[in-house]
Specification:
- This protein has 149 residues and is α/β, with parallel strands linked by helices.
- 24% of the residues lie in helices and 30% in strands.
- The strands form two sheets. Strands 1-4-3-2 form a four-stranded mixed beta sheet, with helices on one face. It has a four-stranded mixed beta sheet with strand order 5-8-7-6, with helices on one face.
- Strand 6 and strand 7 form a beta hairpin.
C-alpha cells in the first residue's frame, strides 16, 4: 500500500510540473566569448546568481530566481552549427522590470557603471534607464507607471 501511495504521489507531482503546450518557460541565450566578463557584470551590477556553469556554458538567474538567461561559448564542439556563431553586439536588448527603478539606478551609478540612457519618464508610462552589458546588449531597467493623460 505504501509503495502504491508513493508511486501515485510521484506521478501527480510529475504531471503537475510537466511542461505542456500551455505551460512554457523561456530562457534567452547569448553566444559569447566573454563568459567571465558577463558573469562578473550580471552578478556585481545586477545581483544575478549562477544557476549552473561549466567551461562553455553559464546559466544565471535574477535575484528572486523568477527568470534565467544563459551564455554559451561560440564554436564549442558539443554544439550544433545553429549554436556556434557569436552574437555580433547589435540587434539585441533585455528589459528588466523592477519595483524601484530609482533605487537601482542609484546603486548602479554608485558602482561606476556607464549609463547609456539616463533615468527618465516616458509618456507611455515607463520610468527607466539603460546600461550595456559586456556583449553590447542594451539592458532597459524599468518601473511601469501610469501613462500621462
Amino acid at each position: 500500500m505504501r509503495t502504491l501511495f508513493i508511486t501515485a504521489f510521484l506521478l501527480i507531482v510529475g504531471l503537475a510540473n510537466a511542461q505542456t503546450p500551455n505551460k512554457m518557460k523561456l530562457n534567452a541565450g547569448i553566444i559569447t566569448e566573454k563568459l567571465e566578463e558577463t558573469k562578473e557584470f550580471y552578478t556585481d551590477v545586477l545581483g544575478f546568481g549562477v544557476s549552473f556553469e561549466n567551461e562553455f556554458y553559464l546559466l544565471m538567474h535574477t535575484p528572486d530566481k523568477s527568470a534565467e538567461i544563459s551564455f554559451l561559448q561560440p564554436n564549442h564542439p558539443s554544439q550544433k552549427p545553429i549554436f556556434q556563431s557569436p552574437f555580433n553586439g547589435k540587434g539585441g536588448y533585455l528589459t528588466i522590470e523592477v519595483e524601484n527603478v530609482d533605487e537601482l539606478y542609484d546603486q548602479i551609478k554608485n558602482k561606476g557603471v556607464s549609463i547609456a540612457i539616463e533615468i527618465r519618464d516616458e509618456p507611455w508610462g515607463d520610468r527607466h534607464f539603460a546600461i550595456v552589458d559586456p556583449n553590447g546588449i542594451g539592458i532597459d531597467i524599468v518601473t511601469f507607471t501610469d501613462p500621462e493623460k
